[in-house]
Structure prediction request, 535 residues.
Amino acid sequence: MKKEEKNKPEERKIDNKKYGKCEDIKSIPQTPLVTGFETIRIRIKTELMSVQECERLRRLTARDTRIIQDYLRIIYHNEDRKFFYKGELKPLIKTDGKVNKSLLDCLTLTTSSKSENKIRSSVPHDLKKRYPHCSHDEFQECRNKATWVYESWKALQRTSDKELSRPQFRKKTPRQLNKGIDGRGTLQVHYDPDNAEAKLWLKLRDSLDYKGEGKKKHPKLMLPLAYSTYHEKKFKLDDIKTVELVYQSSKQQWWAHFKKPFSVPSYQSTNPPAVLGVDLGIKKTAVAVLLSSKGKVTMDELCFIVNKERQAKIFRLDKRIQSIQRELETRIMDGHPHNQLNVKLSQLRTRVRAVREQELGYAVNHLVDFILQLKERYNLFVSVGYPKDIQKNHQRGSGNKSLRRMLNMWCYRLFITKLKHKLERQGFEPYRVVAVGEKHTSKTCSRCFSKNITRSSQGRFVCHQCNYELNADLNGARNIAKRLINYALEPVGKFKEKNILLDTLSGDFHDLKQYERFAPLSQWLKYSSGDTSFL
Ligand SMILES: [Zn+2]
Prediction:
């Protein structure tokens, strides 16, 4: 699959001559650095904690979720209103879509006489009354989370034509705990290299009350982390500024999410442009094909990713789930007991999910390696096929077929997100990796766009219009790559006037100016559409 790239410099020279426009790319202004956050997840060793401590962690997150929801409700309620603040009439939401935080505090938190000349004995939405055992710092952290959620929704709404539904939380939403300066925050990190059970501990200052203890007493909650040498390499303890405590219900585990900032030089290339089309499949985990201005795909521009053993395992597990599901249905119809089958089913689902996750991580790593090789030779863009009708499938009840599809959907999402994050760490700006709708890509000829085709069981694809014949997965991947190029050259429908390209997965919009470097590629596409020598 991956072959050594030799004898390439010669070809590159020719390309640069042919596509002279590449020289102009330098003039496009770009940020020299790609910055972002990397999340490092460390499991909390709940097995070392007492039942009370676990319960307290659960109660803490549940309460925070309620407070964040309350904050959001208050923001929604007062969205269009103006208030007298410091002698002036001010709106709660500023013109740039940001929430006026201190004004929000005036609406929600009373202040005691301790803070001089700012006594507020009554406020319209008294949160301190509703949550008497919550400290000021905790309120602030919940408020920050709520305003962040609101502001990101507002920013997304601004670029979208559709009416986006307001953010709500059905699941638990953690607030972001801050370390603060000199340990004054709600979070403290305790490093104990001699402790055999857990080297790293998080000390939480929370003001939840113990049952049966005095209200004023607030013992600190200690959380042991599964901190390993892997994490040691990955980040320094000084990097820890904030943490979110997240519960993963599928595994029944608690995790500490640390955010670590990074900045790497942005990937820029003066080589000829090329698009890597990535098709995610069921039998093969992923297939990647490079469409370049050279017009010929060679073996080292192809990448089939599949771990056959793992795929077989997934297939077997899926089959068993199917048969158990069928048995379950008949038992329910006949009114027989079926509790044990339910348990078995959920166990199997957890296992299949774990195997899928493994396969996914393997595929992402493989693909990233492949992309890193290609990026030396091309000005590379990545187009990943993504099923668009994900919403519809979610609503279609819990039948076996749709559930299996949902699992796949979930995999698509995770795959693309992971790929994006990994590539971002390598300096790939977000617009270089785009999720495009994959509808019809498997049923269309990638050369003449005819739908008069047949697909054989061996995975051959034959077009009856232009007699094009190739591997069906390759055809899909080629279509996905072409779709990005087509969108970039001729944006469809409502995006046309705005001159933007929509990322199907994230809902992000990319300015088409960024794709100006596609121009040489477009010429090639038009030119080679009837060329049979391709592939
Ligand atoms: Zn054709």
The chain has three domains: 8-32+271-310+353-528, 38-48+174-264, 52-159. Residues 445, 447-448, 450, 463, 465-466, 468 surround zinc ion (CB under 6 Å). The longest strand covers residues 253-265. Residues 38-48+174-264 form one domain.
